[in-house]
Write a structure and sequence with these properties.
Layout lengths: L2 E6 L1 H8 L7 H8 L12 H7 L1 E8 L21 H21 L3 E3 L3 H10 L9 E8 L10 H7 L1 E5 L21 H13 L2 E3 L5 H10 L4 E2 L17 H9 L4 E3 L21 H15 L5 E3 L23 H10 L3 H20 L1
Parallel strand pairs: 1-2, 2-4, 3-4, 4-5, 5-6, 6-7, 8-9
Length: about 350
């Protein structure tokens, strides 16, 4: 089964946290034990390959100085100005390009031909399975002016999420809706549309997301967001947002952080409180609202500030993603629908949009 994970902070973790995905999980865990300030590591290239992961959306993410990421982020290099954000983002682009240059099994996915090469490598007898990296900008502060977006597209970025926290372009969901899209945010969407880029609604306040859905004519997704009906915070998607993404033929990736899967869960609570059934419940909610299984996927965010102790039982790392497929089958999903949710739906969307 070809698996797609639509959200991993690989460059951020490698450059800021010294979690190089080329190292094995056992090595990463040994290097951080016993403190595990950002949780027990769960992501490495070797673990992805064991799972059958063939494509990941690899982020450009950096913390703003006034809202730093928790869990040891006082050690991070943060940004306070657009120039600083731009520099940090370009460092991450360079990191991904070095990875691809140095490892012939990696591909930077920017077009349909490369995507098809990666997918075919997983089904061709005797071929070495490739791992594709598709660049996703999480938080558009890296873009100094909307007109600069073309520079980032030339660098390989194909998906842009205007928000992580509040940005110059829109409100983030963490602090709630206040102003929605700014004038620069609307200008950013205009440029993105001209360039054929994918808009990621994740982390946007509901007001900003609804305004963007109305203003943006290009492809829309939520790479890593769950259902607010099950976990009632603005960080998750309302039923209205889910339906609108479905109407636009977008895909919604399920996040595997326990606090986003079970209402009331707090980081550090017992891992056993959350199971594969909670993952299936969020995916099923999306499928039932939209009316089919073509718009649900996985966007694990497994390296996004939590670790193995705060992901559902019995998952221990990204190597265990195939367990989700079994849970979906147990729920009654067909093999075709399971294959779509585990990766095929993202591949179909990219084939449409990258073309």
């Amino acid at each position: 089964m070809f698996i797609v994970d639509a959200h991993l902070d690989l460059a951020y973790n490698a450059l800021q946290k010294k979690r190089d995905p080329r190292r094995k999980l056992a090595e990463l865990r040994a290097a951080e034990a016993p403190a595990f300030k950002r949780g027990i590591p769960t992501v490495s290239f070797s673990a992805m390959r064991r799972a059958g992961v063939g494509l990941v959306f690899a982020t450009l993410f950096n913390s703003p100085q006034d809202q730093p990421f928790d869990d040891g982020s006082e050690e991070d290099e943060t940004y306070a100005t657009p120039e600083q954000a731009h520099r940090l983002g370009m460092q991450q682009v360079d990191f991904y390009r070095r990875l691809v240059d140095e490892d012939e099994s990696l591909r930077l996915v920017t077009d349909v031909a490369t995507l098809n090469e990666v997918v075919a490598s997983h089904s061709t007898a005797g071929a070495r399975p490739l791992l594709g990296l598709l660049l996703l900008m999480e938080g558009a502060d890296h873009i100094r002016t909307p007109e600069e977006t073309e520079l980032w597209r030339e660098a390989g970025v194909r998906v842009i999420g205007p928000a992580w926290d509040d940005t110059r372009y829109c409100d983030g969901a963490w602090r709630g809706s206040k102003r929605g899209l700014s004038a620069d945010g609307r200008a950013l969407l205009d440029v993105m549309g001209d360039l054929g880029l994918i808009l990621d609604l994740t982390h946007m306040s509901e007001l900003a997301a609804l305004q963007a859905l109305d203003a943006y004519g290009g492809p829309v997704v939520a790479t890593h967001a769950n259902a607010r009906a099950l976990v009632p915070t603005e960080r998750q998607l309302s039923d209205q947002q889910i339906r609108l993404i479905g109407e636009r033929d977008g895909v919604i990736g399920c996040v595997l952080f326990n606090a986003f899967l079970r209402a009331g869960y707090r980081k550090g609570d017992s891992k056993e409180l959350v199971t594969l059934d909670h993952i299936v419940a969020h995916i099923d909610h999306v499928c039932q609202l939209i009316g089919d299984a073509r718009h649900a996927g996985i966007g694990s965010d497994l390296d996004g500030g939590f670790g193995a102790a705060d992901i559902p039982t019995p998952l221990g790392s990204i190597a265990d993603l195939p367990l989700i497929a079994g849970a979906l089958r147990d729920k009654g999903y067909s093999d075709d629908d399971v294959a779509g949710i585990m990766g095929g739906n993202w591949v179909d969307l990219l084939r449409r949009t990258l073309a």
